[in-house]
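Morning run. Coffee first, then this:
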Amino acid sequence: MKRVYVNEKWCLGCHLCEYYCSFAETNEKDMARALKDIKINPRIKIEEKDGISFAVSCRHCREPLCVKGCITGALSIKDGVITINKDKCVGCYTCILCCPYGAISPSENGAVQKCELCKGTPACVKGCPNEAIVFEEREA
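And here it is:
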């Protein structure tokens, strides 16, 4: 299955992946208009440590602790992609505590949010100017 991978030695820390991720959720055609005067809350986050920048997003684990820890069954896995049923999520944040990668975060509507892989090539991959984020299949 294809997944999002990050090559931290190519990551510039520009945060464009975060903007493209947020823009993809708007269903608008113009990024500047869609994101003007709003605080973005992307499903991918840039972290920086010791001068190294890297993007953190859901790894769609084969044995996802977040799905096992979800008390309401809001998180599920289908065809290798972990998704959230926002109607079932009660915002207990157990999945946030279970995720060893820090890839799940609170959303603005009380549920949680995470990368659910955009249809086709993910927006963060398309928008990365240095091609540090790729969408590809790799050996386990």
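Helices lie at 16-24, 31-35, 65-69, 94-98, 123-127. Good start to the day.
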